[in-house]
Design brief:
This protein has 264 residues and is α/β, with parallel strands linked by helices. It has a single domain, classed as TIM Barrel, CATH 3.20.20.370. The protein is 37% helix and 13% strand. Helix 1 runs parallel beside helix 3 and helix 5 crosses helix 6. The structure holds zinc ion (ZN). Zinc ion binds next to loops.
């Protein structure tokens, strides 16, 4: 029997169709990660048209995995906790019955362009969706002393638990910055799994300390999106993705004034 495989897509803000070029909802956002709402809907339709089974992170980790497809299953995730998770992404996901996990930087709840507590709770009330942690302040965990890192992990976990009542919480590392020791600390703190921004294919029984994801970027054309879903084509585009993702992370870090702590 073939080992089940999954691709984890990583989205950020979903952008209204009438937004001007380069628009961002919050100082946390990088426009290169913004995907237009119409494009996003087309991408969800594309998954359906091409026979990709969409599965929740919960079901995948729990071993409830769709069988019989030669294509990898697809898991949809969002980082940061933008208001567009609730206003734009959720209605599209619901209309296609696509499950998703929203990783939220809890310290940003209620700030400009970000979800507030009420929106987060309403998202989590929907059985299609779950909430994960993206840290508390979005500082890169690898740049923090161990005590601050632990505090960041504990505070975010407990806030999500108390707001949603979810017991199993997954972590997506801000900026994709994670190390073996920080992943171990996160697991010890109570996180079920750690997701990275390292592109790759998730295999059944894969490493829960390091779940790979594929960033969906503004620059991705419909053809790029299809290639993203085809591991056989990755060798030809991996360099380009890594370059694009690094540029985005670097400009975000510069925007937040943490240049001295960033080493790409
Ligand atoms: Zn982030």
């Amino acid at each position: 029997m073939k080992t089940p495989r999954a691709l984890v897509l990583m989205y950020h803000q979903i952008v209204p169709d009438d937004a001007p070029e380069g628009w961002v909802p919050s100082p946390l956002a990088d426009s290169r990660y913004g995907v237009g709402v119409r494009t996003f809907a087309r991408q969800m339709a594309c998954l359906r048209e091409h026979g990709f089974a969409t599965v929740s992170l919960d079901d995948w980790i729990g071993g409830r995995i769709p069988e019989g497809s030669s294509s990898p299953a697809v898991i949809v995730t969002f980082d940061d906790g933008y208001e567009s998770d609730w206003t734009l992404a959720a209605p599209v996901l619901e209309s296609f019955s696509v499950p998703a996990t929203f990783f939220v930087s809890t310290g940003y709840l209620g700030s400009t362009g970000m979800m507030d507590e009420d929106q987060l709770c309403r998202l989590s009330d929907n059985p299609l969706f779950s909430i994960g942690s993206h840290g508390e302040t979005h500082r890169f965990l690898t740049s923090l002393p161990e005590d601050s890192c632990r505090l960041e992990l504990v505070r975010s976990l407990s806030r999500i638990r108390s707001l949603t009542g979810q017991t199993a919480i997954d972590l997506s590392a801000p900026g994709g910055r994670i190390s073996r020791s920080i992943a171990a600390l996160a697991r010890k703190t109570g996180y079920r799994s750690v997701l990275t921004s390292k592109p790759g294919l998730l295999r059944d029984g894969g490493d829960m300390d390091s779940i790979p994801r594929l960033p969906v970027l503004n620059a991705h054309s419909p053809e790029d999106f299809l290639r993203l879903l085809d591991p056989r084509s990755w060798a030809f585009q991996m360099d380009r993705w890594v370059r694009m993702a690094k540029q985005s992370v670097r400009s975000l870090a510069l925007g937040l004034g943490v240049r001295d702590r960033v080493r790409m």
